[in-house]
Amino acid sequence: MKRAVVLAAVAAVVLGACGGGGGTKKASSSGSTTTVESTTTIAGGTTTTAAGAPAGGTPTTKAAGPATTAAAKVNGQPANNYTPPAGATPAKPSPVGHYTYDNQAGPGANTFGAPPPTSSLTVDPPQGTVQHTTNDMGSGGKTETTLDYRADGVHIVEVKVTASGQTYDFVGNPPPLAAPTGAKPGQSVAFDLADAAKKTSIHVQIDFVRMETVTIGGQPVDTMLIHQVGTLSGGLTGMQTTDANVAPQYDLFVKTHSTGDVHAGAFEAKSDVFSTLEKLTPS
User: Fold this and answer.
1) Nearest to residue 272, comparing CAs of 138, 109, 140?
2) 150 against 47, higher pLDDT
3) In a domain, 57, yes or no
4) What is the DSSP letter of 173?
């Protein structure tokens, strides 16, 4: 039913598959505190569109997508004018393999019940600079994301969400810059994605908040905390907010807290979910 895909659609587009992004860590220690000086962060999701991309890694724009979407911005300026800071290292595709996240319902409402206890993230081998990942939430649906790792940062090629027989296929034209090379706390990005066939679009605002050290599988890891807000319009309306700890050195989201309130006609879906990566290495 349409209502069952509402929650999956917004969660997937804003947060993606909890994978991807990353970069090279340049750390300096002072006592017991580690400061990450230069990182490239985030981007997640899933998709199958990049199949057929040439070896050089340039993805093909999906024909079903909109003719144009609003220009992406980095720190309030057009993303196509973005120049990475000197010495910043571009992100590389995520380590290939299977990852497991532990999920827990938050204190807010979950319209369709508690999330599954665990969910899986499968990271496929990159094709040139393009990489596909799949986030499988079991009965909650599947999200596929395709990312393109370029010199200026990570671009979102496609996010495809499938649940209860419904599919939403979000793209940008051109693929927007979602994770600029060298992004630091205090900076931000904004971009739009759309499913032209479903007449649904989402505006995403990502703020890079601060550096934090969290423990994953008994191992401390340096992360950047990001705050994301996705606003849906058209066939789906509503908002989803996510706070996520991104581990640039592992190219993964390691902890997330996501809340959503999304509508499709008379149907409403609310969610409040915490997810934590079980371990930093794939199986």
Assistant:
1) 109
2) 150
3) no
4) S
Q: Are 191 and 178 in contact (CB under 8 A)?
A: yes
53 Cα distance to chain centroid:
21
Please list, residue by residue across 121-157, b when 16 or more beta carbons sit within 10 angstroms of its beta carbon and e when fewer do.
Answer: bbbbebbbbbbbbbbbbeebbbbbbbbbbbebbbbbb
Inter-CA distances, 88 with 37, 41, 85, 189, Å: 10, 12, 6, 17
pLDDT in tens, 228-264: 898 999 988 999 898 999 888 777 889 999 888 888 8
Specify the residue for token string 């599919």: 167
Bond prior to 174 in cis (omega within 30° of 0): yes
- Which range marks the domain in which residue 132 is found? 2-51+67-277
In a domain, 58, yes or no: no
Q: Is residue 62 part of a domain?
A: no
**Tokens 């994953």 sit at which residue?**
216
**What is the number of structural domains in the chain?**
1
16, part of any domain? yes
